[in-house]
């Protein structure tokens, strides 16, 4: 994949993620205000459990979106350095199909498989 295309894909992906982060942020904000609202008496509060579940879901999402943004930023840095599309582990080329599906991929499919097993 040429670096201009990669740059466009990654920039678009980053913009999506930033929007996502803003959504998660407002979820966190409403979960936070629900949490601090009223008493800490979760046991007798039917809303309590739901609120904590929402909270942990939202914080989990937040971390996931942030780490994806990090991944995209690292990929953009590789585009600038001219080594985008090369596996950071074995230095083989990452296939276009994989890069189209996961523009921020830093590993070729075989390294990704090896590391996930
Ligand atoms: Zn590799």
UniProtKB/TrEMBL annotation:
Residues 82-114 form the Zinc finger DksA/TraR C4-type domain. A zinc finger (dksA C4-type) spans 87-111. Signal peptide: none annotated. PROSITE patterns: ZF_DKSA_2. Residues 28-55 are annotated as: Disordered. Keywords: Metal-binding, Zinc, Zinc-finger. GO terms for molecular function: zinc ion binding. Residues 28-38 have a biased composition (Basic and acidic residues). PANTHER family: GENERAL STRESS PROTEIN 16O, RNA POLYMERASE-BINDING TRANSCRIPTION FACTOR DKSA-RELATED. This is TraR/DksA C4-type zinc finger protein. It comes from Sanguibacter biliveldensis. The lineage of its organism: Bacteria, Bacillati, Actinomycetota, Actinomycetes, Micrococcales.
């Amino acid at each position: 994949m040429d670096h201009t295309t990669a740059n466009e894909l990654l920039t678009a992906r980053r913009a999506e993620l930033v929007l996502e982060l803003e959504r998660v942020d407002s979820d966190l904000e409403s979960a936070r205000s629900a949490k601090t609202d009223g008493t800490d008496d979760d046991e007798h509060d039917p809303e309590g459990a739901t609120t904590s579940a929402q909270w942990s879901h939202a914080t989990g999402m937040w971390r996931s979106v942030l780490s994806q943004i990090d991944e995209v930023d690292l990929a953009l840095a590789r585009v600038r350095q001219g080594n985008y599309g090369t596996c950071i582990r074995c230095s083989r080329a990452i296939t276009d199909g994989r890069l189209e599906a996961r523009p921020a991929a830093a590993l070729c499919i075989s390294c990704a498989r090896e590391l996930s097993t």
